[in-house]
Amino acid sequence: MRMNYNKLWKLLIDKQMKKSDLRKRAGISSSSLAKLSKDGNVTTDVLCKICQELDCDVSDIMEFVPDTKSTGISEKLE
């Protein structure tokens, strides 16, 4: 499974915010924002700062999606 932050980008559009505005207001680094833009891993601290700034829950900004390259545990056990 991997993370997808499409919900975050849609929320920013709805709030008429730029990514740079979010970075400054939430107090997150440029590298964290770059990781988010690439659906990379960030710390829970970063996610909490974003949620606090946007007044939302983690499920409002991200979701887990199946990784198409790896097989599931049940397939590995067979």
The CATH H-level homologous superfamily: lambda repressor-like DNA-binding domains
Total count of strands = 2
- Please name the CATH topology: 434 Repressor (Amino-terminal Domain)
Number of helices in the DSSP assignment: 5
Strand order of the largest sheet: 1-2
CATH top level assignment: Mainly Alpha
Mean pLDDT: 91
Distance between the termini: 20 Å
Shape: globular
Q: How much helicity do the residues have?
A: 40-55%
Q: Label the structural class.
A: mainly alpha
Rg, Cα atoms, Å: 14 Å
Residues in β-strands, percent: 5-15%
Structural domain count:
1
Plain-language structure description:
This protein is mainly α and 78 residues long. The chain has one domain (2-69): lambda repressor-like DNA-binding domains (434 Repressor (Amino-terminal Domain)), CATH 1.10.260. It has 5 helices and 2 strands. It has a two-stranded antiparallel sheet with strand order 1-2. Helix 2 crosses helix 4. The relative contact order is 0.22. The model has no long low-confidence stretch (mean pLDDT 91).
